[in-house]
Design brief:
alpha/beta, Quinone Oxidoreductase, Chain A, domain 1, 6-stranded parallel beta sheet, 9 helices, globular, binds NADP nicotinamide-adenine-dinucleotide phosphate
Length: about 325
């Protein structure tokens, strides 16, 4: 800690509430306790869930003043007691700060429990990595942890040009699945480049017919990242023993054709990344690192802004003004590349 300053710039709130609660100011640099690592932050992603935690719409324990954000990439600045496997200067990332009692990431320094900290692979830059990890870990949890996708199965990914959808297409392909994707018409070529076998415009008036043609044996896994759940269609498209994964649409209340689901031996699985275990997140991190290093997981379009723009970033995300763009915030005093 000898070279570490006593205070740092951070984006934080004193209480949960609207964007106007966000403050940019100085907080004390936290000291790592046993089993924790102090990281000098190079880049922080801005995710929808950060706005849910800040507003209180996603209930979770937070300490005040509460630093926003959950994903960071940076360099190890100091080690707490009983930390093995990392050294000062190592390039690292995490994607599970800012909820369940843990402080957040949008600051010049952050403390990370060592079991939530992963190395950045050689040749991978902090910005594309941090822009990718939340969505990619979510897609991993959906496809592998919960839906248990197998090689040769067919995965239907709705919202395939979004953050989670892009990652889901690539991770499903990597798992050996055939991928049917839906997205806006202008994104279909991009979704095909990511590896979708079939890409369809979700606004097409005959989408249901086109999906039935593309899925002659049904969908083994159905992942709708858009939060617009048409469970009548999803169940109708489901293969025997198919799995529908729900992970978006906090307030959605769709109708469910019960008979169609159970006569297919189908199941509906829901999950939130915030509830993932340390072991599940580590499994996701291992795959993400491997795919980023090999170039098989590609980042979304990135817009970079200073940490001081955190309020504007939350406002734009809440207004739905970030089509296909991932915002990444960078502290003024970032570690050297
Ligand atoms: N459960 C979890 O752990 C977890 C984790 C991460 C994210 N999430 C949630 O997952 C959702 C997706 O996140 P994201 O970052 O991927 O959002 P995103 O980048 O906005 O992606 C959503 C995509 O859905 C598309 N879409 C909209 N309506 C559609 C429809 N009717 N059919 C098919 N596609 C449609 C959008 O396309 P256009 O923009 O072209 O219309 C957009 O590309 C959010 O609600 C987020 O809160 C949940």
């Amino acid at each position: 800690m000898s070279d570490t300053p006593k205070s740092m710039q951070a984006a934080y709130v004193e209480r949960l509430g609207p964007v106007s609660e966000i403050r940019i100011g100085e907080l004390l640099v936290p000291a790592p306790r046993a089993g924790e690592v102090l990281v000098q932050v190079a880049a922080v992603a801005v995710n929808a869930v950060d706005t849910f935690v800040r507003s209180g719409s996603y209930a979770t324990e937070v300490p005040f003043p509460f630093v926003l954000g959950r994903d960071l990439a940076g360099r190890v600045a100091a080690l707490g007691a009983d930390v093995d496997g990392f050294r000062v200067g190592d390039r690292v990332w995490t994607n599970s700060l800012g909820h369940a009692g843990r402080q957040g990431a949008t600051a010049e320094y952050a403390v990370v429990p060592v079991d939530r900290l992963y190395r950045i692979p050689d040749g991978v830059d902090e910005l594309p990595l941090v822009a990718t990890v939340h969505a990619a870990a979510t897609a991993f949890l959906a496809l592998h942890t919960h839906a248990r996708v197998r090689p040769g199965e067919t995965a239907l990914v709705a919202g395939a040009a979004g953050n989670v959808g892009r990652a889901a297409v690539q991770i499903a392909r990597e798992a050996g699945a055939r991928v049917i994707a839906t997205a806006s018409a202008s994104d279909l070529d991009d979704v095909r480049r990511l590896g979708a076998d079939v890409a369809l415009d979700y606004r097409d008036p005959v989408l249901g017919t086109l999906l039935r043609e593309a899925l002659p044996h049904g969908a083994d896994v159905h992942l709708d990242t858009s939060g617009h759940h048409d469970l009548d269609l999803a169940v109708d498209l489901l293969a025997p023993r198919g799995r529908i994964v729900l992970m978006a649409g906090l307030r959605a209340r769709p109708e469910l054709p019960v008979g169609g689901l159970y006569t297919r031996d189908g199941s509906i699985l829901g999950f939130a990344i915030s509830s993932a275990t340390v072991a599940e997140l580590a499994d996701a991190a291992e795959l993400i690192n491997r795919m980023l290093a090999s170039g098989t997981l590609t980042p979304p379009r990135i817009e970079e802004a200073p940490l001081t723009a955190a309020r504007d970033a939350h406002a734009r995300l809440e207004a739905g003004a970030l089509h296909g763009v991932k915002l990444v915030l960078r502290p003024a005093q970032a570690p050297p590349d």
